[in-house]
Amino acid sequence: MDEKLEEALERGHTHFEKEDWDSAIADYTAALEIKPDCEEALHWRGRGYFAKNEYDKAFADFTAALKIKPDHTNSLLGCADVHFEKKEYDSAIAGYTAALEIEPNMPAIRVVLYQLGRAYYFKKDYDKAIADFTAVLEIKPDDYHALLWRGCAYYYKYDNDNDIADFTAALEIKPDYENALFWRGKAYYKHHSYDEAIADFNALLKIIPDDYEALFYRGDVYFYKKDYDKAIADFTAAIEIKPDYESALFMRGKAYYFKEDFDNAIADYTAALETKPEDKYYRDRLCERGMAYLEKKEYSKAIADVEEVLRAVPDHSKAKSILDRVKIRQAMKENKAEAIAMIKRLNEGGSRAFPNSINDWYLEDLSAFLEVEPDNPKYLWERASYYRSTEEYDKAIADYNTIREIQPNDCGYLYGRGRAYLSKGDYDNAIADYTAIIEIKPDSNAYYYRGEAYYEKKDYDKAIADYTTAIEKEKECDEENRHIDTWLCRPYTGRSKAYACKKEYDKSNADLEEAARIKKQSQEANNE
Length: 528
What we know:
The chain is mainly α and 528 residues long. Helices cover 78% and strands 0% of the residues. It has helices at residues 3-17, 21-34, 39-51, 55-68, 73-85, 89-102, 109-122, 126-139, 144-156, 162-173, 178-190, 194-207, 212-224, 228-241, 246-258, 262-275, 282-295, 299-312, 317-334, 336-348, 359-372, 377-389, 393-406, 412-424, 427-440, 444-456, 460-476, 489-501, 505-527. The longest helix has 23 residues, at 505-527. The chain is globular.
């Protein structure tokens, strides 16, 4: 090698190691002036440009190096890295794969597999991403970055066990790993493990107090726990850090809405709408503000919001429901019977005027119906179900008792009342109701829920007996009368819990495996 060329390359490498990119680029350029076809200088100058985020120049150098030496794996990887940074994931995958085919045992194989996994991840090809991150972990089991990314891939596959397992494994290696705390918090939140989610976001915020995303998600958890004051405090803190945080503005508006502070709700919805007027959720946000105006009885403003939505999307179901609600509210003042007739017409036409997602309206309409028809078991049943969904169990039980007085020979109310007692923690009354059902009509549902009550009472032998009978009863049913296959997961999972409490772990694991098999089989059948 020419002495001056060698000196220029050595100077370049020295500057490169010191991350003095400009000097390194100048040195490699000097080397190329001596030998224009020096693929080493082209590759490393490309790496210098890449480090400066000058991707087009980097790509030109890597490509030039490949023209000189087509099997130059480092330049192939350089091109793939440029494609990755430019979000050209198909080309990135092709480049990484080509490099691995040329040099399958390359020294940097772990890094290449890691990048390949990330490219598949961003393409939402999570199975291939998981395979590549798993390959990385086979080489280096304590690679907490690979554990994090594989956990994220599991998260988006809705793999509720493996995502948390990977995030936890990453945290065991690096306890202060902020990204793992964030994603495990999100995973716990998605799985409705709210206290665990809050604990992770708390830990993250101790490390990074101004992490507005952690504040937002903790606020979201508080919102779904119905702790609206704490939710508002977190959303407010996030907004103070990032004033144009549209999601935080919107969710704070929803928290105010559920606190019936409609003025603040409207102010936040308006701010969110102004922040992202072209957002894909814009029309849904307009509907939310329309609902707040409706609750304030500012009907003209509510109508203006939903009509804007309906001009763009004439069949927008939520906007149509709000418009119907305005008409019903106005009719309620003048002629309640006419308003009820309007609700019935809407229901008969398939456009429910009280969709379950808008619970206050649902209750309002049912209560109006029951003022006119106090002994109508259909409306009593729906109101009892509503109260059960909002955890107002005593009110639900009262309605089920009224149904019993109206229809003493129909045991249907026992199912609902038993569920209410069970959710309320009144296990003896729940057991009594399900026992009464079993005496009349011994079916799998009644055995399952009675088993749940016995389990909560820590009477594990009786719980196991009932779960077992529930499984047997369900298997005895013909195909037409059988519940969906995934229903069987419940008694298997319940019996597994009971066996675990009795420390019969082999039986517990066997039931869990059977539940997983049934669930997988059902999902595969649905995908066909």
